Amino acid sequence: MTRGEPHGGAASATDSASATDSARFLIVGPQGSGKGTQGVLVAEAFGVPSISTGDVFRENISKGTELGARVQAIVESGDLVPDELTCELVRDRLSQPDAARGFLLDGFPRNGTQLDDLAEFLESRGESLDAVIELSVPREESIARLRQRAIDQGRTDDTEEVIANRLAIYERETAPILDVYRDQGLVVQIDGVGSLDEVTERIFAALAGRGLSPIAEPNGGNGAAA
Length: 226
Fold this sequence. Notes:
Elements: H1 13-19, E1 23-28, H2 35-46, E2 50-52, H3 53-63, H4 66-76, H5 83-94, E3 102-106, H6 112-124, E4 131-136, H7 139-152, H8 160-183, E5 187-191, H9 196-208
Parallel strand pairs: 1-3, 1-4, 2-3, 4-5
Helix pairs in contact: 3-4, 5-6, 7-8
């Protein structure tokens, strides 16, 4: 049986318990979708680490690792961290003990090269993804949220045009990746408009429908998703 698949019909308490033995998720969504916050809540509830490439870069740089030194040199030169190094860093992070039961990846993979590398890494370990959580937010809603955030933080350079361009890049990069995972039956599309708690409830209901039950109640809030 595929991990996370209930034994015919509704999952029993025993089935739900076994479904939490491991949990390997991706969370995908445009800027302003609230995926960072929701990703942390999902990861905490399933007892796995929430991992973003930015956090992995910063952690390795702060610890002075060999990989971190390579990232720092590239960033300081103004270049983008290449796929090969990004994938190496993610592989290293996913190999750490706290990710043995699973993980939630936020912001990775971003392109076909990274997608293939992740698939190869998981296959080499006899593992596979359980779900790809797609937070769906209309472009107008994302722009409104990001504009408000920019105003609140005093960032005058985040104009509507700049934000719209950023969203266009996200859409262009992410669509092919989602298509691959959708063909594999992994994507759960979530309406990302609503309060933090409402969106969180939708995510957990969708995961439960796939036989994936958390080991703890999510620590949500009452604010709007951002």
